[in-house]
Amino acid sequence: MSRPPASHPDYTRLPEPGPDMFAAPLQRPAQVGEDWVEPAQRAYSSEDDSIWNDLFARQLQVLPGRAATLFMDGLERLDLGRGGVPDFGQLSEDLGKLTGWSVVPVPMLIPDHVFFWHLANRRFPAGNFIRTRETFDYIQEPDVFHDVFGHVPLLADPVYADYMQEYGRAGWKAMRYNRLKALGALYWYTVEFGLILEGKDVRAYGAGILSGPTEAVFSVEGKSPNRIMLNVDRVMRTDYVISDLQPTYFVIESFKELYHDTVDRDFDRLYRSLGPGFTYANTAVIDVDDVLQRGTQEYLLRGGRGSNAQPV
Ligand SMILES: [Fe+2]
């Protein structure tokens, strides 16, 4: 049974997951405390820095004209291309002046309630490690390039910065209702794989898209995927793919609209109405959808990742 949440939780205190909440068991490394923040950012080798520089240069070849303008602005304002893995202290100082956010180093995976707690306090937890040349093209777990290059530029935008904080607060509530999967789908289809309209163009703002070269093109220009205007209720009922290109992307009009669509929603009511599983398959197009493109799903039908299917 889920307990009704307290109406005004104290977000400064780390929440204790209750006995009826599911929290994935994670072994806390000896060097981190309750907040899971590493004592210091890793000292990167010159090879690590050159991997960052090469990843950065590769993305800059594909992102102009495909990434959201506010993302490109953020990259520049935070000077993420100054060379080498950015220093989190410097980054936090720059970001702090713009929106009050900071970036803190954490181990690869941290518990959900700790992640939400950091977001609710305008701290972005970023993985410390960077991929190797062997895993240059594809990594399972997010590294510092995904986390900092992909997520941090938009935190320089005040409206997006507020959305991320509200997401952290919403996470807390979702845990109390045991509906993390549904809220996870919202994160997936916005923060990680979101698209945004700019005039008549569709551009990408999701970190999962922007931190790799293939999906940056596929999501915006591919014939395979569906592109559907975002509807929060629908998205929170939709399954998603973790280890391949998405069959469906959801498109927002603006960050302001995303913020209000989310924050002004009665999540208590929504969580009570949601079942524990997903209702819609990740390829589904349903009658309430405002469809920008109905995808051919050719990439998926030809076998997706692991086959020699072209991401078209
Ligand atoms: Fe991410």
From TrEMBL:
Residues 1-312 form the Biopterin-dependent aromatic amino acid hydroxylase family profile domain. It holds the Pfam family Biopterin_H. Its EC number is 1.14.16.1. Gene3D superfamilies: Aromatic amino acid hydroxylase. Residues 1-28 are annotated as: Disordered. Pathway: Amino-acid degradation; L-phenylalanine degradation; acetoacetate and fumarate from L-phenylalanine: step 1/6. GO terms for molecular function: phenylalanine 4-monooxygenase activity. It catalyses: (6R)-L-erythro-5,6,7,8-tetrahydrobiopterin + L-phenylalanine + O2 = (4aS,6R)-4a-hydroxy-L-erythro-5,6,7,8-tetrahydrobiopterin + L-tyrosine. SUPFAM superfamilies: Aromatic aminoacid monoxygenases, catalytic and oligomerization domains. Belongs to the biopterin-dependent aromatic amino acid hydroxylase family. NCBIfam families: Phe4hydrox_mono, PRK11913.1-2. PANTHER family: AROMATIC AMINO ACID HYDROXYLASE, PHENYLALANINE-4-HYDROXYLASE. This is Phenylalanine-4-hydroxylase. It comes from Novosphingobium aquae.
